[in-house]
Design brief:
The complex is a heterotetramer of chains A (about 190), B (about 375), C (about 170) and D (about 400). Chain B contains 13 helices and one strand, in the order H-H-H-H-H-H-H-H-H-H-H-H-H-E. With about 375 residues, chain B is mostly helical. In chain D, helix 7 packs antiparallel against helix 12. In chain D, a hairpin with a 7-residue loop joins strand 8 and strand 9. The chains are: A alpha+beta (about 190), B mainly alpha (about 375), C mainly alpha (about 170), D alpha+beta (about 400). At the B-D interface, helix 6, helix 9, helix 11, helix 12 and strand 1 of B face helix 5, helix 6, helix 8, strand 6 and helix 12 of D.
């Protein structure tokens, strides 16, 4: 076959792409560049970047009870928790210090899986670059806390499931308490 | 419209002539054309870099530079500022003088070639009657300068690049010169102006020998200015950046400028010799010239966007064993065509050329891809 | 216009001075590469002088052949053998005397040759037309042209044979 | 430290090129060093050149050694899963696949049907991504100025979007769990995958017209870096490199692990074992992967995606203590046989954890393929071996 045919056909492909980039739509061979700062690609729901702590209504009653499971399970060990004590020195169910070192965290999502109290979830916020690496990227408690409706906004389906589960757990606990109360009431009547 | 620039220059000369002695007038006419050439050279080079990045970008389904200026129009200015402000490192073992002299001496021939290119009807800066030979003389001096750059910077990759470029330049100059001979046969003079006038009714590329000569000249030209698919002297993947590895800042910009000016002059000369320079029906002559040259430059960028690189010995083999014999046969065919004249000449030239093309590609079996069959086992 | 002529004549003298300076450089530079470059400088100045004398074909051929091909070969040689510095060995008194004698004899010879020729340009000799040169080459000087071709061919083969190391 | 060769004592040892060397020149030792545009990462080749011909090539590795095995031995089983993504960062799903299979073999955990199908779909998608990007990089080494890479990356972007939709991250998926997968694939994600798989052959068609019959590519790749089948088998080379030399050995057919026995697909074999065969075998493999994907997507069953027995360990991975013993599981990763060897001493941390990295072993015979070739070919041969430094140095 003629010597240069392979090269000519190859050149034909690039020429076709050259003209296709002018008039074709992005799907079939057109120009699909999204010019980042002005236009953005929609982030997928399950996209996971660095974790954040969820609180229900006010930052005081956050879900995290400083049980330290996520710190133990985190592969690169980037979470540091110190339990809070009240004035009398008795431990409280709240962390005094909760630091995550974003330079160490590899956003693997294991903390989200193992947390029994649905307190920590992976965020969608990825524009957190900063000038200095040491203290700017070491997020402590106030920076990590985000409201539950933010969680519903960025991850609607997951948030819905979590809330449904928490609601159901709520009912079951209330029912259990009611049952215990009725049982206790029943016990009072029986012994006379 | 056609003689726009020529009239502009005459007006300027009248203006100067009003209050200056006549020898100053002739001197200033020289200075005007020289100034125009240098400004043109730099301006072309800057916007060629932008055009290349845009064209290759579009071939790869991306936009290419569009951040600086409206469609990236200020990108070359940004590049120039970057190049100027970059630190100019001279490696410690390098030879000071050579390291300084190489970028300077590579731009000189690149600019000198502009003098002989016919930009439009009687718009050639210096219409020498040895115009074409002048072009070959200037482009042959770059070999030594490239090697000086490679050898001067005492870097293994650079000297490898230098050796490769010397080999490539020599092996591609011979077929390049021989491919121009048929044009001289039919025109009879070396001056580029006369060559363009001779193509008034028939462009040389439409004759069989003209087409083959154009392809050979263009391929050798691409190899002469180290552009893909022959960009071995500066093969990024193998020898980092070839002969200009150790150059940074303005010196590297000079190398870059020389490469693009060579590319422009090769495209311009191919257009002059084979595509009828500024000949063209309605548009003004210099516009025709720009259209033809930039379409050839588009082809060069098209090569760069698609073709992989040749290896050193294949590249030289291609020159000596394929292009050179084809150029020689082309001279024979051109002689036959001009001697016999008319359809008989045309047909015989065509037969000879196609036959030799087939024969040569048979002889160079190592270049022809083997057929391979693959077993789909389970 | 005569002021322009003065400019041109001054240009020629500058060219000649630069050429001779480069020639001296070519001899005295210890670094081989600089010597090569100054030799190229000499050749370019000579081409400049041809141009000013109006023989532009000869000037272009000079640059093409000498600077394009011969210089590249010289630099190829420097590259392959990569001798960088030549040690200028100090000469004994006897060699210096001998060399002065040789140089002066040569100087006398060239001086007498220069003075005996009259340098007035031949009037009426128009510029050399390229196609006249081509026609002459193919008609009157066809025989030396062919002999030269064969000679160069033989030289080429000889060079390759010498370069190949004898098969051990 | 091995005595570094001086060019002087090179003369009597010059075994390969005695006849060919007619011009007596000095040898040049160059380091195609860790900082080089075409070594696919921090990898150094110490090459002794005679003119442009390679006379000795010593690969130097270890610049990207991150102590993966030692870290894994000090962490719980589930915590190592995200680290396996970083081994061959072009095919993270295959790495997870191998690791999950090895722990399942160790603790004898069954994997439900739907999870097995999801795993096969993800593994084949990574094979497409890997082969397409590799061909792009190979063409980059040959000098085609990024065009094949950008076409390849256009397809890769679509597949990486699917990974992000399914697992949460484009390249570091951390998607598989012991006994199944982390989350289920939604219906529209399945639809998205079907669309990609339907469009892939058309892209391959365009890719082939751009490359396969390209004379320059054939000139640069045919009969370069030939790997003889016996040498390949003795050096335990696996993956497309082995099949390009004509040896029919593909783990998906040999081990029939996971549910690969339910799909009908072929194994392409080359004949000469040179760079061109390695390139073309990978294109044929992509066609086969598309066939597997079509069949898997057609009959993916419903059902739960993780073995019920593993439910308690999802919330508390540190209680997962497999029985004492050892297990070796291997998977046909895009680069070759990716094997995991784990010895468990009953505690929550493996006692010994070892990864058999295919690109490391495929690299051992780089010198045999490059001897006598030109410098430009040595770079292309390295490109055709398809190495990723994360896996080589793990």
């Amino acid at each position: 076959m003629l010597f240069g045919m392979g090269i000519l056909r190859g050149l034909g492909v690039t020429l076709k792409n050259f003209f296709a980039s002018y008039y074709k739509k992005p799907e079939e061979g057109g120009l699909f560049t999204v010019e980042y700062p002005e236009k953005r690609l929609p982030v997928k729901e399950r996209f996971r970047n660095f974790p954040f702590l969820v609180y229900d209504t006010t930052p005081e009653n956050m879900r995290c009870v400083a049980c330290d499971i996520c710190a133990k399970e985190c592969p690169p060990k980037c979470i540091y928790i110190v339990r809070d004590n009240d004035e009398a020195g008795r431990p409280l169910k709240k962390p005094a210090i909760f630091d995550i070192d974003f330079t160490v965290c590899m956003n693997c999502g294991i903390c989200e899986e193992v947390c029994p109290f649905d307190a920590i979830y992976m965020d969608h916020e990825f524009e957190i670059a900063d000038a200095n690496r040491l203290d700017a990227l070491l997020y402590n408690l106030p920076d990590l806390l985000k409201p539950n409706d933010y969680f519903q906004k960025i991850r609607p389906n997951d948030a819905a499931q979590v809330d449904a589960r928490r609601l159901e757990a709520e009912e079951k606990k209330k029912a259990a308490v009611a049952a215990v109360k009725t049982q206790a009431a029943a016990k009072d009547i029986k012994p006379e | 419209m056609d003689q726009l620039f020529v009239n502009l220059k005459n007006m300027a000369l009248h203006l100067i002539g009003v209050f200056a002695p006549d020898w100053l007038v002739s001197l200033s006419s020289i200075l005007i054309s020289v100034g125009a050439m240098t400004f043109l050279g730099i301006f072309i080079m800057m916007y060629l870099t932008l055009m290349e990045r845009k064209v290759i970008g579009r071939m790869q389904n991306r936009i290419g530079p569009n951040r600086v200026g409206k469609w990236g129009l200020l990108q070359p200015v940004a590049d120039a500022i970057k190049m100027l402000t970059k630190e100019d490192i001279v490696p410690e073992p390098a030879d000071r003088l050579l390291h300084f002299l190489a970028p300077v001496m590579i731009v000189i021939p690149a600019l000198l070639i502009f003098a002989v290119i016919p930009f439009g009807r009687n718009m050639t800066a210096l219409d020498l009657n040895v115009g074409l030979l002048y072009f070959f003389a200037m482009s042959s001096t770059t070999t030594m300068v490239i090697f000086m750059a490679g050898w001067g910077s005492r870097n293994k990759y650079a000297s490898l690049g230098g050796m490769r470029s010397v080999a490539q330049m020599i092996s591609y100059e011979v077929p390049m010169v021989l491919s121009v001979v048929p044009v001289l046969l039919s025109v009879g003079s070396l001056s580029t102006g006369k060559i363009v006038e001779a193509q008034a009714d028939l462009w040389f590329v439409l004759t069989p020998w003209g087409f083959f000569a154009c392809v050979i000249f263009f391929l050798c030209g691409v190899a002469e200015c180290n552009r893909s698919p022959f960009d071995l002297p500066e093969a990024e993947s193998e020898i980092v950046a070839g002969f200009h590895t150790e150059f940074s800042g303005m010196k590297f910009a000079l190398f870059y400028m020389a490469e693009f000016m060579n590319a422009f002059s090769i495209a311009a000369l191919t257009a002059t010799l084979f595509l009828g320079g500024w000949q063209g029906p309605l548009l003004p002559s210099w516009l025709w010239f720009i259209l033809k040259t930039y379409s050839l430059l588009f082809v060069m960028m098209w090569f760069r966007g698609t073709l992989p690189r040749l290896r050193a010995d294949q590249m030289m083999g291609l020159a000596w064993k394929f292009l050179l014999p084809l150029a020689l046969v082309n001279i024979l065919a051109a002689g036959l065509h001009l001697y016999l004249g008319g359809p008989a000449g045309f047909a015989s030239a065509l037969i000879i050329l196609l036959g030799s093309f087939m024969g040569l590609s048979k002889v160079n079996r190592s270049y022809v891809p083997e057929k391979r069959e693959y077993v789909l086992a389970d | 216009m005569e002021s322009l002529q003065v400019l041109v004549k001054a240009g020629i003298y500058i060219l000649m001075a630069a050429g001779s300076l480069a020639a001296i450089g070519a001899v005295f530079f210890p670094n081989l590469f600089y010597a090569g470059l100054s030799l190229a400088g000499v050749l370019i100045c000579v081409a400049g002088i041809y141009l000013s004398a109006g023989a532009d074909f000869l000037a272009m051929v000079q640059i093409l052949i000498y600077v394009g091909a011969v210089m590249t070969l010289i630099i190829y040689a420097i590259m392959l053998t990569n001798i960088e510095e030549i040690k200028v060995s100090h000469l004994g008194i006897k060699q210096i005397l001998l060399s002065i004698l040789a140089v002066s004899g040569f100087a006398v010879l060239t001086a007498s040759a220069i003075l005996s020729i009259d340098w007035r340009p031949l009037s009426g000799q128009n510029r050399l037309e390229v196609h006249e040169l081509g026609a002459a080459l193919m008609s009157r000087y066809i025989f030396p042209f062919e002999v030269l071709g064969i000679l160069l061919f033989a030289v080429l083969i000889g060079a390759i044979v010498i370069a190949r190391k004898d098969k051990v | 430290m091995e005595k570094t060769l001086q060019s002087g004592d090179f003369k009597e040892k010059s075994f390969v090129l005695r006849g060919e060397r007619d011009v007596d020149t000095q040898t040049l030792e160059i380091n195609v060093g860790p900082q080089h545009p075409s070594t696919h990462g921090a990898f150094r080749m110490n090459i002794l050149l005679d003119g442009e011909t390679v006379v000795r090539l010593k690969p130097v590795m270890g610049y990207l050694h991150r102590n993966h095995e030692q870290i894994a031995e000090n962490m719980s089983y589930a915590a190592t899963m995200p680290y396996t993504d970083r081994l061959d960062y072009f095919s993270s799903m295959s790495n997870n696949f191998g690791y999950a299979m090895c722990v399942e073999k160790l603790a004898s955990i069954e994997v439900p049907e739907r999870a097995e199908y999801i795993r096969v779909i993800m593994a084949e998608l990574t094979r497409l991504v890997n082969h397409v990007s590799l061909i792009g990089f190979l063409l980059n080494d040959l000098g085609a100025f990024f065009t094949p890479v950008v076409y390849a990356f256009r397809e890769r972007e679509k597949i990486l979007d699917i990974f992000e939709e399914v697992s949460g991250s484009r390249m570091m998926c951390n998607y598989l769990r012991f006994g199944g997968v982390k989350t289920d694939i939604g219906a529209n994600t399945l639809e998205g995958i079907k669309k990609i798989v339907r469009a892939f052959p058309a892209f391959l068609e365009e890719f082939e017209t751009l490359l396969t019959k390209n004379e320059i590519l054939c000139m640069r790749c045919q009969n370069i870096g030939i790997l003889r089948p016996e040498l390949a088998v003795n050096a335990s080379i696996t993956g497309p490199m082995l099949r390009a030399s004509g040896v029919n050995y593909d783990l998906r057919k040999v081990d029939k692990y996971s549910v690969y026995d339910r799909f009908s697909f072929k194994i392409p074999l080359g004949s000469r074992g040179d760079v061109y065969d390695r390139y073309f075998v990978r294109i044929l493999e992509m066609h086969e992967s598309v066939k597997i994907l079509e069949q898997a997507l057609k009959d993916i069953p419903q059902g739960d995606i993780i073995n019920r027995k593993m439910a308690p360990f999802v919330k508390a991975p540190r209680n997962f203590k497999p029985a004492v013993g050892e297990a070796y599981a291997r998977v046909e990763a895009p680069k070759g046989e990716l094997g995991y060897y784990i010895v468990s001493d009953g505690t929550a941390q493996p006692w010994r954890y070892h990864v058999r990295a295919p690109s490391l072993i495929n690299l051992t015979i780089l010198e045999d393929m490059c001897l006598g070739q030109k410098l430009a070919d040595a770079i292309v041969i390295l490109g055709s071996v398809d190495i990723v430094l994360g896996e080589v140095d793990h």
